[in-house]
Amino acid sequence: MTGPVDERPGEGAPAEGAQTGGAPADGGGPRRSGLRNPDKAVRGLGAGTLALEALVLLLAIQPIRVVGGDLSGAAIAAIVALAVACVLLAGQMKRPWAWHAGTVLQGLLLLAGLLHWSLFALGVMFALVWAYALHVRRVILG
Question: What's the rounded Cα separation, in Å, for the pair 35 and 38?
Fold first, then answer.
């Protein structure tokens, strides 16, 4: 990229035989992103985020019990219930209500912080990750 600006590919005069006019070559409307299927990509992002959250919740039970002190049976039940809800919701990301349910799930994890402080810490971390996933969804889908 050391040449003048008008010699760069994609800028300047169109190449011979190239289609001109604002429409893409496939005849559809303008694409919102460079992804082939942005809806599927965003669903994968949401499902992956929820699946990772479920895994971290389940794997966090023992370290919380050893390092964090007393972890009550109610807290363990809440962790397992939230992990199961994450897995079930990850499979429902095609549904329009799934993103709202994921947001509610993050709030429930924050509320589980009343049972043990480490659950609140996990809730804050995953709420931030979920907020980023929502931001990416909004940028990609418009």
Answer: 5
CA dihedral 47, 50, 51, 54 (to 10 degrees): -160
Digit-by-digit pLDDT tens for the chain (142 residues) are: 565 555 445 445 445 544 444 444 454 555 566 788 899 999 999 999 999 999 999 999 998 888 877 788 888 999 999 999 999 999 999 998 999 999 999 999 999 999 888 899 999 999 999 999 999 999 998 8
DSSP string, 11-43: SSSPPTT---SSS-TTSS---SSS-S-HHHHHH
Place of tokens 């002190």: 69
* Tokens 């949401």 -> residue: 46
